[in-house]
Amino acid sequence: MWQPPGYDPGDGHPWEGAGREIAMTPLPFTLRQLELFAALAQDLSVRGCARRLGISHAAVSSQIGLLEKQLGFALIARQAGKGLALTAQGMAFAEDLRAFHAAAGRLAAHRPEETAEPCAGRFRVRIGLALFEHYVRPRLGYLLGAHPELEIAFDTHVPGEAFDPGQREPEPDFALFHAPLVGEVGEGARSLAQVRCAIYAARSLVGDAAEELSHQAVSALPFILPAAGSDQIRAQLDGLARLGIVPRRIVGHCDDFDVMVNLVERGMGAACMTEAMIAPAIRPHLAPLFPLENYRLMWMRRAGAEGRLPDLVADFLIGCVMDNPDYPALI
Question: What's the rounded mean pLDDT across residues 224-233?
Answer without folding.
Answer: 86
